[in-house]
C-alpha cells in the first residue's frame, strides 16, 4: 500500500512550485504528476496522420514522490502518513499528527 495515491490532495515541498497545492493525476513508480504543477513547455511538430497540430504545448511533468506531501484537511498543512489495521482487519492510511483516517 502506498502513502500517496492517485486523486489525493498534495502540497509541493521543494522546487519552483514549493507551497502549491494540487491533485495527483497519475503515478509511475516513484514519481507523481500533479495537476497544474511543474509545467514545462514542449515544442512539438505537427503530425497530420494523428491530427495533432504543432507548436508549443504546456505539459505537466512528473515530480519525485519525496517532494510532495499529503495535505491534512483538518489543518490545511502537509502531514506525514502512517498505516493502521482496523478491528475488521482492513489496513488504512492515517495522519501522524492527529491519527485521523485518510481513506474512508
Provide the β-strand percentage band. Answer: 35-45%
Terminus-to-terminus distance: 15 Å
**Overall geometry:** elongated
The strand line-up of the biggest sheet is: 6-3-2-1-7-8
Number of E strands: 10
Overall average pLDDT: 94
Main pleated sheet:
6 strands, antiparallel
Radius of gyration: 17 Å
User: What is the element string, with H for helices and E for strands?
Assistant: EEEEEEEEEE
CATH A-level architecture: Roll
- What fraction, in percent, of the residue positions are helical? under 10%
Description:
The chain has no helices and ten strands. It has 104 residues and is mainly beta. It has one domain: SH3 type barrels, CATH 2.30.30. The strands form three sheets. A six-stranded antiparallel β-sheet has the order 6-3-2-1-7-8, with no helix packed on it. The two termini are 15 Å apart.
Question: Which SSEs are present, and which pair or pack?
Answer:
Elements: E1 9-12, E2 21-28, E3 31-34, E4 39-44, E5 55-60, E6 63-64, E7 68-71, E8 78-79, E9 81-85, E10 91-95
Antiparallel strand pairs: 1-2, 1-7, 2-3, 3-6, 4-5, 7-8, 9-10
Could you write a compact summary of the structure shown?
The protein is built from no helices and 10 strands. With 104 residues, it is mostly beta strands.
Which short descriptors sum up this protein?
104 residues; mainly beta; SH3 type barrels; six-stranded antiparallel sheet; two-stranded antiparallel sheet; 10 strands; elongated
